[in-house]
Amino acid sequence: MAKSGIDARRRAALEDGGAAYMARREEIVQAAAHVFRDRGFAAATLRDVAAALNTDRASLYYYVGSKEELLQEIVRQALGRDIETAEAVKRSRASSKDKIAALIEAMVNSYAANYPHMSVYIEDLGRISRQDSEWSIDVIARTRAYEALVNSILTKGQRDGTLRKDLPVELAALGLFGMINWMHRWYRPNIKWSPEEVAKSFTEIFLNGYENK
User: pTM value?
Assistant: First the structure.
C-alpha cells in the first residue's frame, strides 16, 4: 500500500480513537520506550521496536509514522506524569521542606526512568520551541505548566519561612532545573550513583544553600 494510503488510515484510526486501536498503539509506545532506553534513540530503529513486539515493521505504520513520532508520544506522556506528580506534591500536607525533597526525588527518578528520551528532549528543547507543530506547542505548554508548579512550591516555602527571602524564587527554580536538566550530559543507566543517591545529594545541595537557618 502507498505510504499516503497508510498515513490516511492511521489518521482516521487516531481520530476515531477506538479502544482496541489505542491499546495497541500504547503497547507500541511502551515497547519503543524500552528499546530506546536499551539501545539509545539514535541507534534504535522501527525494526527494533517491531522485533520487541514479535511483529514486522510494516505493521507499525498503521499506528505510528516514524520513530520520531514514538519519541514525541513518550515525552508527552512523561511530562504528563511529571505534572501529575508535582500537582500531588503541591496538594499534600507535607512541610515545604519535605515537598521540595519529594519534588527533587520525583524529578530525578523521572529522568532516570525515562532515559534516554528525556535526555533527547532536553537537548532538543531549543529546536522544539521554535517549531509550530501541534506536538511542540503541547510540549512547551506542559513544560511551562510544570515550571509554574515548581515555582509555586518554592514560593510557598519562602512565604512560610522555610526558604530564604533574600533570593529570587524564579532564580532558585532555574538553578534547580539546571541541576536536573544537566543530567543529560552525564547520566547513564548503571552509573555508580543510584537515582536515590542523586536525588539525596541534589536535595542537600539545594536546601542547605537555600534553607532558612
Answer: 0.79
